[in-house]
Please model this.
Amino acid sequence: MAATNNAQYTYQATRISTATKEQLLLITYDIGIKACRTAENAMSAKDKTPDYDTANREIIRAQEVVRELMVTLNKERGGEMADKLMQLYEYMYQLLVDANMKKEPDNLRTVRGMLEELKQTWESALLQLLQKYQEEHPEDKDLQNAMDELEGKKPETKTAVSYVNPAPAKNAKAGKFTLAG
Model:
């Protein structure tokens, strides 16, 4: 069991250290979504006593994710859109605080739904950018293979380049939240 956890931690650490800033954003959303889901399940256990310790730990993790999203939001470049996102993040954070204090799983479902929707929006936007780049650079076989992989098609040829992460971010930081567990 310890070897499995260690391997998972190593995988997550490698995934984060080699991720682009766009991928880090998606990973951050994934962590928040998983934390909300785990806390929901811990609070809403129908067949057993709610596990408030687990719920508390996961809600705190979700709060750390939302704080990370707030801190990394570039208000200067994002303008009004960034201001609206900040308001949304502040609202989600307050819902998480209330969920923890009042043991309210509905708040967790609301935040999880918002995080899932935001993640899906970013994924769609990134896919559109990749498609546009692909149209402008049809000679880029690595990108073509990456697009095929995203669409579930078998890539033409495998290369040493990671299709999910064609350009690792320099000095990428995932924040202070815990990834394992």
